[in-house]
């Protein structure tokens, strides 16, 4: 297979971690007989410095021409004083919109080798954690109309509106069922159907889509309970699907229980076009350019890319296995360092993973 990948290293540690992820992708491609065609595009602060715009038109065009996009991170103190609409983050929001990315896949995976960094009880996490939150990204209360303020009974009153139509629910549900089919085939739909009409429609549509996926075991859970269950016993979940508001909160909760921001990948997917693959962490300006960054979140984002953009499951698994072996052998970057382990830099960590493919 030939894969057209658009690279957007971005700012801070972005270039260092993307370089390592590319080296690993090249190794996987060579090993499994694929070819990769790379293009490069500017986003965020580096794009502002070069063009004055955090998302130049050429960047959008380069992303659209690719099969998948790999992003490092954007932002940093250098651009913090710019007005909101010209800041690096605007580039990220803009590219998500331009590519029509309506689903955010956030695996919260704790390798058992790193269980010590996790603050849940050891008996809960001794075998690691492996949950994925699928969050709807373009609807819900963040975008619903009407929004505003008005005087009601003499009091200033503000309102937002939670809205989903059946098509929006159907497409995120299908995507989540598809993701569950690539994992343990268990899907938990999280809502607040005891209170919210939006959630009652959500549940009906998810039930209807479930008929297309007889192999997947579907359950429903109220969001308040889901927030508790995630810390009580995260491994009861395989894939969680939920709306934008609940997903915002639950995906961060699921990530933080793993205890290692430098380890977590993500994918944002749309309808048909290229998806965006990126680590969940930011540009880490405090360690940028020092060969200290952990490249594993970006390397694991490449594994997600192989799985979700190209259905190359063996190739994705080869990367995940290589990462696990490196951890088993005791190599650690600074952010996941423990006593008795071997401290390595960003380059070495990337090389170690590539060598084990
Ligand atoms: P951050 O995720 O960049 O850093 C938080 C802490 O985690 C820092 O101490 C950093 O050194 C460490 N860290 C993060 N990634 C690491 C890695 N791969 N290896 C080792 N250590 C790592 O978040 P922060 O400091 O809030 O934001 C810094 C900049 O990044 C800001 O300009 C922010 O706007 C931007 N940002 C960009 C995101 C993106 O591009 N998706 C997401 C979050 C923040
Ligand atoms: Mg959040």
TrEMBL record:
Molecular-function GO terms, alphabetical: 3-isopropylmalate dehydrogenase activity; magnesium ion binding; NAD binding
Cofactor note: Binds 1 Mg(2+) or Mn(2+) ion per subunit.
Compartments where located: Cytoplasm
Residues that hold NAD(+) according to the record: 76-89, 282-294
Gene Ontology biological-process entries: L-leucine biosynthetic process
Major location category of this protein: cytoplasm
Enzyme Commission code(s) on record: 1.1.1.85
SMART domains: Iso_dh
Location of the Isopropylmalate dehydrogenase-like domain: 4-353
UniProt keyword list: Amino-acid biosynthesis, Branched-chain amino acid biosynthesis, Cytoplasm, Leucine biosynthesis, Magnesium, Manganese, Metal-binding, NAD, Oxidoreductase
Pathway: Amino-acid biosynthesis; L-leucine biosynthesis; L-leucine from 3-methyl-2-oxobutanoate: step 3/4
Cofactor field: Mg(2+); Mn(2+)
Gene Ontology cellular component annotations, sorted alphabetically: cytosol
Binding residues annotated for Mg(2+), in chain numbering: 224, 248, 252
Pfam families: Iso_dh
Binding sites annotated in the UniProt record for substrate: 96, 106, 135, 224
Catalytic activity: (2R,3S)-3-isopropylmalate + NAD(+) = 4-methyl-2-oxopentanoate + CO2 + NADH
Record-annotated site: Important for catalysis: 142, 192
Record's subunit section: Homodimer.
Biological role: Catalyzes the oxidation of 3-carboxy-2-hydroxy-4-methylpentanoate (3-isopropylmalate) to 3-carboxy-4-methyl-2-oxopentanoate. The product decarboxylates to 4-methyl-2 oxopentanoate.
Family affiliation: Belongs to the isocitrate and isopropylmalate dehydrogenases family. LeuB type 1 subfamily.
Protein name (database record): 3-isopropylmalate dehydrogenase
Species the sequence originates in: Desulfovibrio psychrotolerans
Gene (UniProt): leuB
